[in-house]
Specification:
By secondary structure, the chain is α/β, with parallel strands linked by helices. The chain is built from 2 helices and 12 strands. Strand 5 and strand 6 form a beta hairpin.
Length: 172
């Protein structure tokens, strides 16, 4: 529509009918696809709140995504549960909220997605620990890494060390 010049990858992705040219038909089909995804999410996912968390449960997979801490009074260790209402917790999404009382977070084995800003509001957080059976994440010295240790994902704001030497295995 002339608002943005598409790069090669974006142009290929936007060419829904594979005509080698992005047309208004492609744009209409993209819009329909986006609307369908939003509608399906509204049908299959519902948000809940218990005394500790705001969370979303997918009715098809019965997996839970933690959205936010429901109670800002939590202090000490924040143990992310492996299940909420009998359903596996697999995601920690978005910013969990401001909290200067939490000093340690523990991540269970089945969590496979953590927002890069999930713990950024926890000013006193000294350590993030990950269950050793987790296939996606690991923890070293209380710092969150991907399982392979090649990507540093979250450095707790409350750590008292003045310096931290990043290992050579870390690429990101």
């Amino acid at each position: 529509i002339g608002k943005e010049q598409l790069t090669n990858e974006k142009e290929v992705a936007a060419d829904i009918d594979v005509s080698k040219k992005v047309t208004s038909t492609d744009i209409l089909n993209l819009k329909r696809l986006i609307v369908r995804i939003i509608e399906e999410r509204q049908i299959y996912e519902q948000e809940y709140t218990n005394e500790e968390y705001e969370y979303r449960k997918n009715k098809l997979t019965e997996k839970v995504t933690i959205i936010k801490l429901a109670n800002n009074k939590k202090s000490g260790v924040l143990q992310i549960p492996s299940k909420i209402d009998g359903n596996e917790v697999t995601k920690i999404e978005d910013f969990l909220g401001e909290n200067n009382r939490i000093t340690r977070v523990t991540i269970p084995a089945k969590v496979d997605s953590i927002s890069n800003v999930a713990f950024s509001g926890m000013g006193k957080l000294e350590a993030i620990e990950v269950n050793s059976l987790n296939e996606k994440y690991s923890s070293r010295e209380g710092i969150l890494y991907n399982k392979e240790g090649t990507k540093l994902l979250s450095y707790p704001r409350g750590k008292t060390e003045k310096t931290y030497k990043i290992e050579e295995s870390v690429k990101e």
